[in-house]
Amino acid sequence: MLSHDKRYSRYKMKQTIGGIKVSLTARLGQVVNLKVARITEFGYFLTDGCEDVMLHKNEAKREYTEEEDVEVFLYPDAKGRIAATDTIPFITVNHYGWAQAADVKPGIGIFLNIGIKKELLLGEEDLPAHKSVWPIKGDMLFTTIRISRNNRMYARLATDKVIEEIAVKATKKDFNKNVQGHIYRTAKVGSWVYTTEGFKGFIHESQREKEPRLGEKVEGRIIDVKIDGSINVSLLGRKQETLDDDAERIFAFLQSRNGAMPYSDKSLPEDIMERFNLSKSAFKRALGRLMKDGKIYQEEGWTYLKK
Fold first, then answer.
1. Which of 58, 121, 142, 225 lies at 20 to 30 Å from 76 by C-alpha?
2. Are 299 and 263 in contact (CB under 8 A)?
3. Burial category of 177 from C-beta neighbours within 10 Å (exposed 0-12, middle 13-18, buried 19 and up)
4. Where does the S1 motif domain start and stop, copy by copy (predicted)?
5. How large is the angle between the packed helices 239-256 and 269-276, nearest 10 degrees?
């Protein structure tokens, strides 16, 4: 997957805006440089000259001395207080990156591992309506951090606009190449994928056997390169790879029904999908193969094995 680099930084974090000092609360979810003001039994009090924040010893990778400058990430602890860690996460406010789904909590949402001890919540309201396409543990989500009005930290998924800003443009030379990527948006009409090459891709519902999960890693091939450099992707196997398997499945089904079935190339796509988990085009290709091999024939909407 694409590395955590400057392409994902849309804004440069500053400790001042227009010369006005920004409070530590306003910098939650950001990386800041602070100075060690004093050391206690439990950790280090860091300061920006106006406010202090605790870097607990459990969150410090090494020991520090007074007056030393420390780069830390600010986050709200379990009680809502500002805390610091010198472990820098994969993502920060306005800085997108890949976060791995660590836990699924029905009624709450998905907790993401962002590289620090505190996990980031992607709330249920920001997830697909159908739980069947919710991420599972291990799936990867391209996200950033948002801070709520009550200074809590949540995940925000990348939108099409964000992906478009960082996407690499594909060329006609990329047509028919195999690609891998993770789903960053999903819908009934199709799924959107961000590939390891950085391509922004769309997978039409007809080009997938089932709807992938949000964050799921998928592998397919490029079936079209658009003028804007985005791509259309198919998750269906290449014809020569899937035809034999599909034909064998249909042939076995016919054998299990004494050589006759009420399905043909005139059957409805939804009936074919429900029975064989195949698109109508794949079903027709498999039937054509079996007819070419002299194994079946069709009559009045039914398909029969030849004796």
1. 142
2. no
3. middle
4. 176-236
5. 80
pLDDT over 90 percentage in the chain: 66
Per-residue tokens: 117: 């001890």
Residue environment code for 139-168, b if the CB has 16+ CB neighbours within 10 A, otherwise e: bbbbbbbebeeeeebbbbbbeeebbeebbe
* Assigned domain for 58 exists: yes
- Model confidence band, residue 239 (pLDDT cutoffs 50, 70, 90): low
Of the two residues 102 and 15, the one the predictor is more confident about is 102
Say what the pTM is: 0.70
Q: 29: exposed, middle or buried (C-beta count within 10 Å: 0-12, 13-18, 19+)?
A: buried
Residues 6+ apart with CB under 8 A from 36: 44, 45, 46, 64, 65, 66, 67, 68, 69, 70
- What is the domain extent for residue 107? 97-160
Q: Does residue 115 sit in helix, strand or coil? A: coil
| Cα(114)–Cα(168) distance, integer angstroms | 24
Q: Tokens at residue 267, please?
A: 């059957």
Q: What is the pLDDT of residues 119-129, one digit of tens each?
A: 999 999 999 98
- The residue among 27, 54, 85 that closes a domain is 85
The predicted model gives 177-192 an average pLDDT of: 93
Task: Report the domain count for the chain.
Answer: 4
Residue 131 lies in a domain: yes
Q: Are strands 153-157 and 178-187 parallel, antiparallel or unpaired?
A: unpaired
CA–CA separation, 231 and 226 (whole Å): 6
Strand 302-305's sheet: what is its strand order? 260-261, 302-305, 296-299
Strands 302-305 and 296-299: antiparallel
Of 114, 9, 29, 10, whose CA–CA distance to 72 is shortest?
A: 29
> CA 283, CA 15: separation in Å to the nearest integer?
61
pLDDT category, 306, cuts 50, 70, 90?
A: confident
